[in-house]
C-alpha cells in the first residue's frame, strides 16, 4: 500500500492521535504497512501475552481487560478513535491484558516490526511513545484505584458513561448485567441492584441488552471521577 492507497479513515484517526504532529513520512510508513480490520461488538481481538494487536482505532470502542485464573475480569482502560492499542506489548513482546470490542470497531492493524524499526531511528517518535506510555501507566493505576476503593454504584455509573455510544435517539450502551459485572469486577446480582436504582430514579432506561442513558448529568453525579478527563459523548442530531 502506498501513500495514495492509505484509507481516509486511517488518516483521520491518525490526526486525532498523540502522534499527529510527527513527520508525515512516519505516518505514511506505518499506515502503508497496515491493514484495515473490522470487529463486531463482543469480539475478543487478542488474548494477551504473546497474542497482541498493535492497532490505531478508526471508530468504535475497545476495552483492555485483565482476567484472573477463576474468570473474573477488570477493565484497565478504553480505547476509542485516535487511540493506539498494545504499544507496551509491542515493546515487551507480550502483555497480560487482552482486548475486546465493546462496540463495532474499525482499526488499522499496524506492523510491530515497522513500528519498532522507526522508534530505533527516530528519536522524536521514541520520546513521544515514551511519554504516551507513562501517561497510560498513570491512567491504568487510576482505573485500578477506582476498582479498589470506589463503590459498585460509582464504578458502574462511570463505566456506563464511558461505554455509551451516541445515536440519533440518545446515548446507548449495548450490554447486559453479566457483561457489566465482568467489566467492573463485580457479580451479576450486585450490578442488577445498582442498575435498578439508576432505573428507578430516571438516570437510565433498560430494554433487554440495551441501556439508554436518560439523564447523563444525574448519572454523572453518581459516577466516580472521569479518569481521563474525557467529555461524555453527545447524542447525534437527527
Automatic annotation (TrEMBL):
This is Crp/Fnr family transcriptional regulator. InterPro entries: cNMP-bd_dom (IPR000595), cNMP-bd_dom_sf (IPR018490), Env_Response_Regulators (IPR050397), HTH_CRP (IPR012318), RmlC-like_jellyroll (IPR014710), WH-like_DNA-bd_sf (IPR036388), WH_DNA-bd_sf (IPR036390). Residues 25-119 form the Cyclic nucleotide-binding domain. The keyword DNA-binding applies. Keywords: DNA-binding, Transcription, Transcription regulation. It holds the Pfam family cNMP_binding. Residues 150-217 form the HTH crp-type domain. SMART domains: cNMP (SM00100). It comes from the Bacteria.
Amino acid at each position: 500500500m502506498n501513500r495514495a492507497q492509505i484509507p481516509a479513515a486511517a488518516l483521520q484517526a491518525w490526526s486525532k492521535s498523540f502522534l499527529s504532529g510527527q513527520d508525515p513520512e512516519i505516518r505514511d510508513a506505518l499506515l502503508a504497512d497496515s491493514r484495515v480490520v473490522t470487529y463486531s461488538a463482543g469480539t475478543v481481538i487478542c488474548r494477551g501475552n504473546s497474542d497482541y494487536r498493535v492497532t490505531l482505532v478508526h471508530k468504535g470502542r475497545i476495552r483492555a481487560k485483565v482476567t484472573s485464573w477463576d474468570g473474573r475480569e477488570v477493565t484497565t482502560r478504553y480505547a476509542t478513535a485516535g487511540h493506539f492499542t498494545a504499544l507496551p506489548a509491542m515493546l515487551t513482546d507480550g502483555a497480560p491484558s487482552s482486548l475486546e470490542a465493546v462496540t463495532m470497531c474499525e482499526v488499522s492493524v499496524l506492523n510491530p516490526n515497522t513500528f519498532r524499526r522507526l522508534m530505533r531511528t527516530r528519536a522524536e517518535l521514541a520520546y513521544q511513545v515514551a511519554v504516551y506510555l507513562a501517561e497510560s501507566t498513570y491512567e491504568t493505576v487510576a482505573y485500578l484505584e477506582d476498582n479498589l476503593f470506589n463503590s459498585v454504584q460509582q464504578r458502574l455509573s462511570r463505566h456506563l458513561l464511558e461505554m455509551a455510544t451516541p445515536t440519533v435517539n440518545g446515548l446507548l450502551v449495548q450490554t447486559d448485567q453479566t457483561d457489566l459485572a465482568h467489566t467492573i469486577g463485580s457479580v451479576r446480582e450486585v450490578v442488577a441492584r445498582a442498575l435498578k436504582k439508576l432505573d428507578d430514579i430516571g438516570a437510565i432506561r433498560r430494554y433487554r441488552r440495551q441501556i439508554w442513558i436518560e439523564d447523563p448529568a444525574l448519572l454523572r453525579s453518581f459516577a466516580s471521577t472521569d479518569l481521563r478527563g474525557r467529555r461524555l459523548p453527545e447524542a447525534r442530531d437527527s
